[in-house]
Amino acid sequence: MSLTVEKLHKKYKENQVIQNFDFQISPGEIVILLGSSGTGKTTFMRLINNLERADRGTIQIDGHYLCKDNGKKAVYENRHQQRIYQNSLGMVFQDYQLFPNFTVLENLLEASLAQKLDSKENLTERAMTLLSEMEIKEKATVYPSTLSGGQKQRVAIARALMLEPSVLCFDEPTSALDVDSANRVGSLIRQLSEDGKAILIVTHDRSFGQEYGTRIISSESFINQA
Ligand SMILES: Nc1ncnc2c1ncn2[C@@H]1O[C@H](COP(=O)(O)OP(=O)(O)OP(=O)(O)O)[C@@H](O)[C@H]1O
Ligand SMILES: [Mg+2]
User: Fold this and answer.
1) pLDDT the model gives residue 185
2) Same structural domain for residues 18 and 80?
């Protein structure tokens, strides 16, 4: 098991978006999260990425907790524990969120250098290997503004992989891509799952979900009455 979410609750004012929701994802799975607009898909992604606070529930990856429910509310771990959790989860945003003033290579190095995870030399070697796997090694020294959409996305994927996450999340990975580029990222995602990552994808693209997903869940299941 990688990511485990138990009895998650989240509401905005009177709007209960997620209620008593349980979710698990294992290495090798590609879970597709489908559902109508406004049903909480982005909210769920933000919760597991620690960009939003849960009201109730427990969230963990491989025994590293982000928060635990104490019977009354979700209690968040200390910053150090939260950091360990967050390093286990990579996120590729819909708009990629690359740093515009950093080169491609600097984008990859930023988080791991800031956390002093290894020497600069070793981290640079790892970054160049990832860029080469993503077939964008020759773009290492350019700035993100000079890249195509598909290239930016592959930089964002390489950056997410720098911290060796066990879970990788994608928000609408194909919305900005033509069919060929979408299939290219689909094959890449499949390869990552075969390498043992657990993949969670929010998409409105049903044919992509059916082609590449190993399991499809609906955001209508975020609300559980029980
Ligand atoms: N920061 C916020 N403050 C208040 N309400 C919010 C906030 N973020 C989301 N909501 C509400 O929570 C609900 C779920 O929103 P969310 O963005 O998670 O939906 P979604 O499933 O991602 O929709 P879409 O498919 O359109 O992207 C909506 O009713 C939305 O208005
Ligand atoms: Mg959304």
Assistant:
1) 93
2) yes
Q: Do 1 and 83 have their domain in common?
A: yes
**37 CB near ligand 1 (under 6 Å):** yes
Query: How many residues belong to the chain?
Result: 226
- Name the residue range of residue 42's domain: 1-88+165-226
Q: Which atom of ligand 1 is nearest to the CA of 36?
A: 25
Mutate to test the pocket of ligand 1, among 8, 10, 15 (most ligand atoms within 8 A of CB): 15
User: In this predicted model, what pLDDT tens digit does every residue of 179-210 receive, in sequence order?
Assistant: 999 999 999 999 999 999 999 999 999 999 99
Residue 225 pLDDT greater than 90, yes or no: no
Instruction: Give the span between the Cα atoms of 25 and 135, in whole angstroms.
Output: 28
Q: Alpha helices of the chain — where are they, by DSSP H?
A: 41-48, 79-87, 104-114, 120-133, 149-161, 179-194, 206-212
From the CB of 12, is ligand 1 less than 6 Å away?
Answer: yes
**pLDDT-derived band at 176, boundaries 50, 70, 90:** confident
> Are 32 and 53 in a shared domain?
yes
Q: Does residue 189 share a domain with residue 154?
A: no
63 and 8 within one domain:
yes
Whether pLDDT at 126 is above 90: yes
Mean pLDDT of the chain: 96
* Token reading at 217: 């869940």
Domain count for the chain, please give it: 2
Q: For the beta carbon of residue 29, count every other beta carbon within 10 angstroms.
A: 18
